Amino acid sequence: MAFKHENVADLYDIGVVLGSGHFGQVRQVTERSTGAQWAGKFIKTRKSAGSRLGVERSAVEREVELLQALTHPSIMALKDVFECRAEMVLIVELISGGELFDFIAAKDNVTESEAIAFLKQILEGVGFMHSKHIAHFDLKPENIMLSDKDVANPTIKLIDFGLAHQFKQGEEYKSMCGTPQYIPPEVINYSPLSTATDMWSIGVITYILLSGLSPFQDNTDEETLKNIIAMKFEFPEHVFSMTSESAKDFIKKLLVMDPIERMTAEECLIHQWIKPMTRKQMANRNRSSINMKNFKKFNAKRKWKMSFNMVWMCNRFMRLQLLSSAANAELRDCESDSEDTESKPASLMRRRLSSSS
């Protein structure tokens, strides 16, 4: 895709702000020639190699390249890219249905069969990604959206490919990026990564979806990471009393220490929980449901923490502006993707800035 150098406002009417991040914002835009609605990701880019204000152009180019290769119903689509000296604008699919977890939390009751309908879409999108040798590396509830929630069968959209990586043949790739409660042991151990890293994250997401608990999360990020390394998780009966045995088996085959032993996306789609082989398996699944009381609590806490961290980062940024002489040293902290502002293992929490806002 060729980067356009004309002014984005010449081709699109710039509308309301939909969201904002460390180095940019997302705005609703309208294509003047067709009237079609899109989202514009306005990303501040670094003016010089030594600057810490903005995203490296190469990072945006990498995300554009990956999105071009990922044309799939369950993955956010890219239409145009504009660039000028200090800003790049990605015109992407307008995803207006909000986060999947928010959609589910608004319901009174959700059966496992209903949850599986969404998980199948996630697995199909991830499976397509992996067929292109691309790993997302940041699968979590915030990055699983719905194209439109006011329809009978909402469509899943996977977003935020700022940490994604396309593997080359024979390549060994290592990274210590991601969000603590969703990362597998190989990230913490700085071992070679693969598409199996995403499958661990899907196991964690499924566990949370069914129970309203996070399998490894503890009071601090350090304790969470220790629990992951120790493979310290269980299925408390008082929480999983409404969960089918096949659902637990599905999770167990994803939360596996050895990446090679984890189910692939294709294997997940033919697992007996996703695709029952007998009437008994189907009946057991249909009788089971999400622990909605716990799930609503988890989601409310998650949303509160996201809001708290955003306010905290904004306040911190304002202080840094006032202390401009020390800004270069301090601004590195703003690139962390931590869920616990009291405790941030620096080496693990440091992530490449995602260009998604």
Task: Tell me what the structure shows.
The protein contains 14 helices and nine strands. The protein folds into two domains: 14-29 and 37-93, Phosphorylase Kinase, domain 1 (2-Layer Sandwich), CATH 3.30.200; 100-296, Transferase(Phosphotransferase) domain 1 (Transferase(Phosphotransferase), domain 1, Orthogonal Bundle), CATH 1.10.510.10. The chain is globular and about 60 Å long. Helices cover 38% and strands 14% of the residues. The protein is an alpha+beta fold and 357 residues long. The strands form three sheets. Strands 1-2-3-5-4 form a five-stranded antiparallel β-sheet. A two-stranded antiparallel ribbon has the order 6-9. Strands 7-8 form a two-stranded antiparallel sheet. One of its GO terms (cellular component) is cytoplasm. It comes from Gadus morhua (Atlantic cod). ATP binds at residue 41. Pfam families: Pkinase.
Nutshell version of this structure?
Belongs to the protein kinase superfamily. This protein is of the alpha+beta class and 357 residues long.
